[in-house]
Design goal:
By secondary structure, this protein is an alpha+beta fold. The chain is built from 17 helices and 22 strands. Helix 5 links the parallel strand 6 and strand 7. Helix 14 crosses helix 16.
Length: about 500
């Protein structure tokens, strides 16, 4: 399984794992066709310069699994992969109890083999880390194996990654159904949003399903706290609460989906259904939403142009989850050295930073702030003068009713040159981007359709709905070609391309 912790074993480590004497590994490699293939270990650049010879080694987990399934080395292999466990009689195990471990909430189960600890988390390497900790602890309560959830569904239930305390650095895939057989009763499972100690600790065999609240995540908490700020208008607070409710509803929907999928497919095909130990409270859900797009858009505009410190974090969240409500298009970054970018920079006006400027700047140190007064978009320039970049949100439209499109410049993004000799970044809708050139199986229909709309009306608010259907074939093919950096396509070239159908002779 790709999600397990990988441990690279050298020759002497394989010999120690399998208790092999001198020369026995070579004979084993010759005689056992199924033995895992080895490979050369990674060498750092420093070791390569020193001329260090690479070490030949093996994936320890693969060797450990192979040993468990062999006849001769079974006792040296993975505990839960011993083939006899599926057929031999085992005495019913018993529940030991909840364990608040350093790795997360866990349950211990006494079995014929010893105590099996199940970590109810999906963090990478958790089983290995817990097994290492137990191996170093003399009072480890007889735990022989640690299992952690993988986050997927295996052949007989939720997928598990295991690590034995005898070989804590070697992880392998274990079967939920086998562990269920060892403990002698259905194992409880909790959906990811309810895998908390305060929920899991309430369970014991025969206990009813726990009804628990889904706790707000950091994004929701940030939005609700920001909604309490005294904003210039009520729309800002309304927009923040609406997005917080939306994110909470999405979390509840994801939780319901996870419970449904694991409930339908996570049980043993030949045994009991999956024991779902907790569900969320349903009273009051879904949380109410605001249907008035104009009110929400006005609220986010207030937040975006605010200079309050409290606007920064909620705006970061809004730009990711409510981009359609902001009055701008996608995040765009271009080299300031380009000819079109240099000319555009001369049109910008320095300004005091807003929350939008702060989000665009992120953690950059050398930053100056601007506004494009024609389109109103926020712009920052970051980096040294020799290697600086412009970072901005693309406009949704070019409000220049007295001009027409004169040419298109292909330079990091699509630039529009107008008949009044001004330069503008091409307008684009959120979650889209303007590109050109060979795209494999894709075609630059976004740029083709935007350019076509601007050729008809420079001031239109562009739409990219069904752009793959609306984009003129000739423009699409023109933009699908390779163009040098900074190529300028004059209006006559664009008019001619738009009039062409694919396959027409120029």
């Amino acid at each position: 399984m790709a999600g397990r912790h990988m441990a690279f074993l050298r020759r002497h480590e394989v010999e120690r794992l399998l208790h092999l004497g001198k020369g026995e590994l070579d004979r084993l490699l010759e005689e056992e066709e199924g033995f895992p293939d080895g490979s050369e270990g990674y060498l750092s650049h420093f070791d390569q310069v020193l001329g260090t010879e690479p070490h030949w080694g093996w994936d320890g987990g693969s060797v450990y699994v192979w040993a468990a399934r062999s006849g001769r080395f079974r006792e040296r292999g993975a505990v839960l992969l011993d083939p006899s466990l599926g057929t031999r009689a085992v005495a019913p195990g018993k529940w030991v109890g909840f364990q608040p471990t350093s790795q997360g909430p866990a349950m211990d189960w006494e079995t014929d083999l010893g105590v099996v600890r199940i970590l109810h988390i999906t963090r990478f390497g958790a089983a290995c880390a817990m097994a290492v900790e137990l191996a170093e602890d003399a009072g480890s309560q007889g735990v022989i194996t640690v299992c952690a959830l993988f986050g997927d569904i295996g052949f007989t239930g939720p997928a598990l990654i295991a690590a034995d305390t005898a070989q804590p650095h070697l992880e392998y895939e274990a079967q939920w159904g086998l562990v269920t057989r060892l403990v002698g009763q259905p194992l409880p499972w909790w959906p990811s949003a309810l895998r908390r100690s305060d929920v899991i600790s309430q369970w014991s065999p025969g206990a009813p399903v726990t009804l628990a609240e889904v706790l707000p995540d950091e994004k929701e908490t940030t939005l609700r706290q920001a909604a309490t700020v005294r904003w210039p208008d009520d729309a800002a607070g309304t927009a923040l609460v609406d997005l917080a409710n939306s994110l909470r509803n999405q979390d509840i929907g994801s939780l319901d989906s996870e419970i449904r999928i694991f409930g339908e497919h996570g049980g043993n095909p030949h045994g009991d259904p999956l024991l779902i130990a907790a569900r969320h409270r349903t009273e009051g859900y879904p949380l109410p939403r605001i249907d008035d797009h104009d009110v929400l858009a006005a609220g986010w505009r207030t937040i975006a142009f605010s200079r309050l410190f409290e606007a920064y974090e909620p705006l970061e969240i809004g730009m990711r989850y409510a981009a359609d409500l902001l009055p701008f298009g996608p995040h765009t970054e271009v080299h300031a050295r380009g000819s079109a970018a240099r000319r555009w920079g001369q049109q910008l006006t320095p300004c005091a930073p807003t929350a939008l400027h702060a989000v665009l700047a992120d953690d950059a140190q050398d930053v100056t702030f601007y506004t494009d007064c024609t389109s109103g978009i926020p712009v920052i320039r970051k980096g040294s003068s020799r290697d600086s970049t412009w970072v901005f949100l693309a406009p949704l439209r070019i409000p220049d009713p007295d001009a027409q499109l004169k040419s298109v410049i292909l330079e990091d993004t699509v630039w529009i040159r107008t008949t009044d000799d001004r330069i503008h970044p091409g307008p684009c809708t959120p979650r889209e981007h303007l590109w050109w050139g060979p795209g494999g199986g894709d075609r630059p229909t976004e740029a083709a359709w935007v350019i076509s709309q601007l050729m008809d009306d420079l001031s239109t608010q562009v739409s990219l709905d069904d752009h793959w259907h609306h984009a003129p074939a000739g423009l699409r093919e023109l933009l699908n070609q390779t163009h040098a950096y900074g190529t300028e396509l004059p209006r006559p070239v664009l008019d001619h391309a738009r009039s062409q159908q694919v396959g027409d002779t120029p």
